Amino acid sequence: MDYRTFRWSALLFLTAVVAMVLSLEATAPAPPEGVPVGMVVTASSVGDDPPPEVSMRDVQVSQGRQTVQVTGWTPARGNHAGLNLFLLIDDAADRSLGSQLNDLRNFITAQAATTNVGVGYMRNATVQIARDFTNDHAAVANAVRIPLGNTGAFGSPYLSVIDMMNRWPNHPNRRVIVMVTDGIDRSRGGPRSRGLTTMPDVTRASDVAQRTGTLIYTMFSPGVGYRRRNLWEATNGQNGIARLSDESGAESFFLGLQAPVSFRPFLDRIQTALNNQYLLEFRAIPGGRAGLQSISVGTEVSGVELISADGVWVPAAR
User: Fold this and answer.
1) Closest Cα partner for 125 from 163, 181, 88, 75?
2) Residues 62, 296: contact at Cβ < 8 Å?
3) Rounded mean pLDDT of 184-191?
């Protein structure tokens, strides 16, 4: 073999090697980007029929304006049905709430064996636990009592729900709170802004709910004291609980400023939501610091709306 032939053979060999390496790099899966995070998503039917099953390929998640990779989509059923459900009743609620207690008790006793239930009363910006989490649903139902009908010295349903979320046991189950309150923050005295959006404790409660993945369903029930007779206070309270529920990925229920005849339709809606939830996992884009990142979850499946929290807690980039 002369020198020219050897040179061309070596060049062809190197070209083939380079082409093979480039081909392997092109076909090899790209390393996943972002950090793994999870949240609970509720599938809601647009009409009256139950929502159809939604598969992972039908789910789109956006962080800001960028689509992120969905890595898990598991129905919250079977081995994944674990749920921690806590009922929070405002002790500043009018004692006429007593006529609704059987609806609340029936809702508790109807929970699945995979659900741990607790009940507590919001008073003085804390929670007085009447029965801690247990799967003895009858015992929890028996702990439900008529509210004291007293505003207390420092009544704020938002500070109380923050207290409850901060005391939540470390457990992988879904976290759900059902709040019965008029939403009026009685802890803030003195001059106050009359802007309906100026409710700092609602903002704090919403941030904690999104950070901890807690869904907060709220049901309006009139409270006691002069503030409940103030249209601005009552409307502001309803706006507060509606905002808290919406931003945490849940729903708020009320019929004007009056007490509903029965809580049962609201509780049935909540139960339907609990029965149609999914555990979503995706890779979020981290920032320089850990914090809440705005998230949008959607699907093109006809007749289905996916309800999720406005944000998710994302660890800092490493």
Assistant:
1) 163
2) yes
3) 70
Question: How many CB atoms within 10 Å of residue 5?
Answer: 9
DSSP state letter for 259? P
**Could you give the 3-state DSSP secondary structure of residue 67?**
strand
In whole angstroms, give the CA distance from residue 278 to residue 39: 8
CA distances from 60 to 129, 186, 251, 279, 308 (A): 39, 41, 22, 14, 12
In this prediction, residue 226 has a pLDDT band, given cuts at 50, 70 and 90, of low
Tell me which of 91-105, 106-120, 123-137, 224-238 is least confident: 224-238
Neighbours of 88 (CB within 10 A): 23
pLDDT digits (tens, 9 = 90+) for 119-159: 999 999 999 999 999 999 999 999 999 999 887 767 899 99
How large a percentage of the chain has pLDDT more than 70? 85
214, 248 Cβ separation under 8 angstroms: yes
C-alpha 304 chain-centroid distance: 18
Unique residue bearing structure tokens 């008029």: 182
The dihedral of CA 179, 305, 210, 186: what is its sign?
negative
Do residues 41 and 306 touch, judged by C-beta distance below 8 A? yes
The HSE-up count of residue 120 (CA atoms within 13 Å, CB side) is: 24
pLDDT tops 60 at residue 1: no
Residue 189: phi and psi, rounded to 5, are -100, 180
What is the per-residue pLDDT for 179? 98
- Mutual angle of helices 200-212 and 157-166, in 10-degree steps: 20
- 46-60, 149-163, 222-236, 293-307: range with lowest mean pLDDT: 222-236
CB 221 within 8 A of CB 149: no
Helix residue spans in the chain (DSSP H): 3-27, 101-109, 137-142, 157-166, 200-212, 231-248, 264-274
Read off the amino acid at residue 63. Q
